[in-house]
């Protein structure tokens, strides 16, 4: 699903963590402490699966933590021929989904990494960053 967005989901100085989670549902509750609010409090990029039916709850729980202008992307049927990506913000994503309904097989991404531009690349991609098996000369 991340490839469908054409974005990196971890970006230096923006969000270095990606949390894959879901919301409590009929089939099984989430363990104590594994809540959207707990994960959202970290500022990490969230990938929320099995939750398209609860997008209003996702918005309600995450808006106080990320702000209503925080980017959201919903990827439906990632890598399938009928793949769709619906983009918005926490303030607009519910109405975007009303215009472009999705019922199942989708993942909701929330986080500032979805909009980051002009960010500093990770040192891991810097040819001159000294690593254990490569010196500072880029070789």
Q: How would you describe what is shown here?
A:
The chain has helices at 2-5, 36-40, 55-66, 93-99, and strands spanning 18-21, 45-49, 71-76, 84-89, 106-110. The protein is an alpha+beta fold and 139 residues long. The protein has a single domain (2-125), classed as Tetrapyrrole methylase, C-terminal domain (Methyltransferase, Cobalt-precorrin-4 Transmethylase, Domain 2, 2-Layer Sandwich), CATH 3.30.950. The protein has a 5-stranded mixed sheet. Strand 1, helix 2 and strand 2 (45-49) form a beta-alpha-beta unit. The chain is globular, with a radius of gyration of 17 Å. The model has no long low-confidence stretch (mean pLDDT 87).
